[in-house]
Amino acid sequence: MSQAKQSAISGSTSTRLISPARNVLGSLRLPGDKSISHRYAMLAGFAEGASHLSNFSSGADPHSTLACMEQLGARVEHKDDGRIAVTGCAGGFQEPKAALDCGNSGSTMRMLAGLLAAQPFASTLVGDESLTRRPMERIRAPLTAMGAHVTLTDGHAPVTIHGGPLRGVDYQTPIASAQVKTCLLFAGLQASGITQVHESVHTRDHGELALRAFGAHLARSKNSVGIQGGQHLHAIDATVPGDMSSAAFFLCAAALFPNANLVLDGVGMNPTRASLLDVLRMLGVQLNVLQLSEQHSELVGTLQVLGTPGGLVGAEISGALSAQLIDELPVLAAIAPYTQKGIRIRDAGELRVKESDRIALVAENLRAMGANVEEFEDGLDVPGGQPMHGAEIDAGGDHRIAMAFAVAALRANGDTQIHGAESAAISFPEFFDFLDRIAER
Questions:
Q1: DSSP state of 96
Q2: Selected catalytic residue, list 101, 205, 327, 436
Q3: pLDDT band at 2 (very low <50, low <70, confident <90, very high)
Q4: 6-32+241-440, which class in CATH?
Q5: How far, in Å, CA of 287 to CA of 307, rounded?
Q6: Tens of pLDDT, residues 384-429
Q7: Is 327 a catalytic residue?
Q8: Considering the domain 34-238, what is its CATH architecture?
Q9: pTM, 2 dp
Q10: Starting from the edge strand earliest in sequence, which strands make up the sheet with 392-394, in order?
């Protein structure tokens, strides 16, 4: 079925050739959710006892987290049955002998800083060139208010943390960020008193649910969450749900074809992530939830997406919805020319400080495929009713850009080359093989 080919070009960069598809059909079971995998790995390494994690994310980022946990004294074992066993440090990490390498993972750097802030030693978090450009002041300020001493380089990594006793704080996050919220809850777990985190937008709550799964008690109100310090965590056995952000690419791919029929098994259906399904329905996509269950307070379901004979309509995404869909916005923008009325995105300035400037890259690559697009500081206007042609796509080292334009290429006229396709491995090494499996050509 596949017509995709992969070949090496300059250095370690690879190019993937995507040919147009006639339809999308089949079923997939996706690798574990990246956000949940990060949090389970950190809390398993911090807890008492041995946790066993099934369907752990195959992406490079959560494995950077596991490597950091090993440096801090946790024992990580990869079992023959695919499970990962993590024996934790019972709340007391050992001082690392070298800098903790977070790779490309902002999640690792920001959230691990919260666990390290109360440890009685100094540690330094480093990352690759992309991660070193990402803003870290957003964790330094609240951790400093709690009593930690955190130093940055011009607001960026390396991040050096001189840990010690912490006190609880009442903190309003200036930028909607689940990573910052989780960082503070991880620090608050070890602080004296209560740490209260207030958000203007209710961001994804995987950190809260993971803490509860490992035995912590939290108090939640509409847009705030609090944790009492001094609590102890205990190991769990858990299966990580399939990643909704990875599912987004296949849901959007199926939405492009009027006769599509795609089933995704075991997908995480956390309400703070399900906004994507609301937007797809707004576009006219037919979605069915075939099964629904709960695992460690995370909802898990089987999703069926059917083709849209009348075509996709259009949507406006702004405000709280933009924050909730921050990872899915690139693929929604990439398919916007195929809708009737286009997609308008606002209040998404955070896209400019991800692994790349995603607003600029989406605009650049849409234009390369022949689409008109208007770029704004905090979003994009992508008109509908625009046919696109195959083109040379620059992923810019960003996994979500590579995957988003592989989806857009399925409906293009002619072949598309995705340069930097290897970046997909950051979150989803199997992506191109899975796409080939469901694309009829």
A1: P
A2: 327
A3: very low
A4: alpha beta
A5: 9
A6: 999 999 999 999 999 999 999 999 999 999 999 999 999 999 999 9
A7: yes
A8: Alpha-beta prism (3.65)
A9: 0.92
A10: 6-8, 14-18, 416-419, 392-394
